[in-house]
Amino acid sequence: SSVRSGEMAKSAQLIDNEVFRAYATYAAIVLLKMMLMSLVTAYFRITRKAFANPEDTASFGKGDSAKKFLRTDADVERIRRAHLNDLENIVPFFGIGLLYALCGPDLSTALLHFRIFAGARILHTFAYLIPLPQPSRGLSWAVGYAVTISMAYKVLSKALYL
């Protein structure tokens, strides 16, 4: 039991680590933003009456009258692509950012990484959904991607066991 309580104390001390708290803050922000994209997709599916599954069209009629709602819509597909891009970028940030936070970077450097990534992902979403002219979407993607690569480099250079 005493070993167990010691392990719990170490875990509890992690929340006292300022870099970890910064990571937790910005990870939560970008994960919530990514979750919001599901709601935006659902909103556009309902308002555009464009569904992917037959059972989703049931409230709009039966048989052939409901089949016309089983279709793709350009706006829905655009939001889905933005959401997919979040999955492709926020999930790696979540894992690499955690490893990075545990490698003991300076708080100011860590905050810079986390804030730039979160800002880039939020800008990417606006650039995708408004849409803003290129290269705004491409640049915002590249900035977020570069931040994740930078953190991965720090992790590998700090804890290299290759």
From TrEMBL:
The chain crosses the membrane at residues 20-44, 90-118. GO terms for molecular function: glutathione transferase activity. It is an enzyme of class 2 (transferase). This is Microsomal glutathione S-transferase 1. The keyword Cell membrane does not apply. PANTHER family: MICROSOMAL GLUTATHIONE S-TRANSFERASE 1. SUPFAM superfamilies: MAPEG domain-like (SSF161084). Gene3D superfamilies: Membrane associated eicosanoid/glutathione metabolism-like domain (1.20.120.550). The keyword Coiled coil does not apply. Its main location: endoplasmic reticulum. It is a multi-pass membrane protein.
